[in-house]
Specification:
The chain has 3 helices and 2 strands. It is 41% helix and 11% strand. Helix 1 links the parallel strand 1 and strand 2.
Length: 76
């Protein structure tokens, strides 16, 4: 069986998914290929989980309510 696509995105991270969605909304036939789980490094294995764990540790040992708010990932 042969399939044809207008775009094949390698990597299901935030950038790959954004590109695939933009092209698909323009009517392109799009495929996403990734050997790892959907979401990419930042969301699943990178800065997001690391920041959540680090922040939880700081908030758990502090009485300052400002530390209980999550931070936004600037480098992703």
């Amino acid at each position: 069986m042969t399939r044809s696509y207008d775009l094949i995105v390698i990597g299901a991270g935030m950038a790959g998914v954004a590109a695939a969605n933009k092209c698909a909304s323009a009517g392109w036939k799009v495929a996403i290929v990734d050997a790892l789980p959907y979401g990419g490094t930042c969301a699943l294995r990178g800065c997001d989980p690391k920041k959540i764990l680090r922040h939880a540790r700081r908030a758990g040992s502090s009485q300052d309510p400002k530390l209980w708010r999550p931070s936004v990932c600037q480098g992703c």
